[in-house]
Design goal:
There is one protein chain. The protein is an all-alpha fold. It is built from three helices and no strands. The longest helix is centred in the N-terminal third of the chain and has 26 residues.
Length: 100
């Protein structure tokens, strides 16, 4: 009898998880993806303003850059790779055909 309750409990848990993932995909997935893209764009702009001289964009005085450098070192290499890679103009734009 204990094994049957355990199996029933496991089925109920997996069913609840499936319903939760369905509603997340239905209601929130697009919003979360959009927010992540906005965060990445804002982060790119912030780091470009502070450390643009690493890629040839002298924007800010180096004093502020040096004060913030210890906090930015972990993401600096990936940022340089992301900013300097070749891409097409339409890579970052999604064209939604709402209503069609």
């Amino acid at each position: 009898m204990v094994g049957a309750w355990a199996r029933l409990s496991e089925r109920w848990r997996t069913w609840r998880q499936a319903v939760r993932e369905f509603f997340y995909g239905f209601a929130a997935y697009d919003v979360v993806q959009h927010l992540l893209e906005m965060r990445a764009a804002t982060e790119n702009l912030f780091i470009a303003a502070l450390f643009g001289d690493l890629i040839g964009l002298p924007i800010m005085p180096p004093y502020y850059s040096l004060r913030l450098l210890p906090y930015v070192v972990p993401i600096l290499e990936t940022w340089k790779r992301r900013v300097l890679r070749e891409r097409e103009f339409v890579d970052e734009h999604e064209y939604h055909l709402h209503g069609l």
